[in-house]
């Protein structure tokens, strides 16, 4: 959705600004990078900082600009990277601490619940799906590279490839990840594809342009008529009935909380509940101080009892109650 597009924009822009800061050793580029990465965090998730930090390390090494980043002004700017999480924690109070702890627990739980067959399927299909997302340019280039290899020269393109790989590999080999996690890398992949395309003659470029035009001609009618038709039958439409069932079970005066480890499923259901309750603010996260509340959880929470279990996208959602 729009959040992914904004997330990509802010992260990619911050990574580019870090690169420019390292290459030209200009403070204003680093200051802009810090501002953009804070905006990325507010847009979606804490994972924005992983892309930022890995890029910083790579370009600082490539341009040997460690001393630049260790200047007092840049050390101060580095501390400002944490402005957004601190502001968010202040606004959300105790739920922020619960969310941070929940994130660590969730990552640990995911690595201890690996199904070997599903994991093998994941590491096989993940790069294939990424290539498909870059189609038709990626498919055309794979065909021509297979017929005629090109030499990759130049420090910049190698650096782009390195930044892409370092950020891509953890999601590829993580047991639970999907394409939304690597959205910020789409722009870097596009730069690599553009560079490779420019290494070929006009004939190859013409094939790419024609394939893109064909895709656009197919995409317009599919977007206008096919997408609305598919959304009517989309499994995500189950979110609203689940929210309605929860509303009926707990009543209109109940206090509801979100599990700090909420996934997009929990957020989608609580969004419908917010609408049903007519709340001006979002349903808050659960904290240890909460009692007499209903909780939408994705796992067992100590001190609660299970009232009902739902299944959405093969993931469980529990309606819990804490005395």
Characterise the protein shown here.
This protein has 323 residues and is of the alpha+beta class. Helices cover 66% and strands 7% of the residues. The chain has helices spanning 2-24, 27-43, 48-62, 66-69, 72-79, 83-92, 94-112, 116-133, 137-147, 155-173, 186-198, 202-232, 239-250, 264-277; strands at 256-258, 293-297, 305-312, 315-322. It has a four-stranded mixed sheet, covered by helices on one side. It starts with a helix and ends with a strand.
Uncertain stretches of 5 or more adjacent residues:
none
Structural category:
alpha+beta
| SS strand fraction | 5-15%
Percent helix, as a range, is 55-70%
- The termini sit apart by 37 Å
List key phrases describing it.
single chain, 323 residues, alpha+beta, 4-stranded mixed sheet, 14 helices, 7% strand, globular
State the gist of this model.
The chain is of the alpha+beta class and 323 residues long. It contains 14 helices and 4 strands.
Secondary structure blueprint with pairings:
Blueprint: H1 2-24, H2 27-43, H3 48-62, H4 66-69, H5 72-79, H6 83-92, H7 94-112, H8 116-133, H9 137-147, H10 155-173, H11 186-198, H12 202-232, H13 239-250, E1 256-258, H14 264-277, E2 293-297, E3 305-312, E4 315-322
Parallel strand pairs: 1-2
Antiparallel strand pairs: 2-4, 3-4
